[in-house]
Design brief:
The chain has 6 helices and 6 strands. With 162 residues, it is α+β, with helices and mostly antiparallel strands.
């Protein structure tokens, strides 16, 4: 409990710095299962470097501490990060990063595009995390988690998890 309180206190100190560098989130178009979207202002295309950073952040999401997850998230996702850490997240310790692809080429763009707009989806990367798919199987695609990132100031920031 003390560790969680320390992380929350630390995150509250860091949050104002993040506010200064990120524009306010925008409300998603209703009816698509998304509450808030990243502001399209200042979104950058992913590079090989920012893709690697997003994959690394996805591998540790929900496993380190509140401060790290807030620092690696867009403001639109902060309420979910705080909720995750207020209930002591159950780490998916055996999960691994299975891959990444542009969100615009994923099946999820069907609801993300009308919810958050073409610019956000075109500038988003989807990183899939789940149980290792090595070996003969069976494999559980339904066990996978898909984390969506945007890039601001050469930093990938989580904005949605499905």
């Amino acid at each position: 409990m003390g560790r969680v309180l320390l992380a929350i206190t630390f995150a509250l100190v860091l949050a104002p710095a993040g506010l200064a560098t990120q524009p306010a989130p925008v409300k998603a178009s209703p009816g698509h299962g998304v509450e808030l979207c990243p502001s399209p202002l200042g979104l950058q295309a992913f590079t090989a470097t920012t893709r690697k950073l997003a994959v690394r952040a996805a591998a540790t999401y929900g496993r380190e501490d509140l401060a790290s997850d807030l620092r690696n998230s867009d403001r639109s996702w902060w309420p979910h990060v705080r909720r995750l850490w207020s209930s002591s997240p159950t780490a998916r310790a055996k999960d691994v990063v299975l891959g990444s692809e542009p969100a615009a080429t994923s099946g999820f763009q069907v609801f993300l595009r009308p919810a958050c707009g073409a610019t956000t989806v075109e500038r988003s990367l989807m990183v899939t995390v789940g149980p290792s798919q090595s070996g003969a199987g069976p494999h559980c695609d339904a066990c996978n988690v898909h984390l969506f990132y945007v890039t601001r100031a050469a930093r990938p920031l989580l904005w949605f998890v499905y």
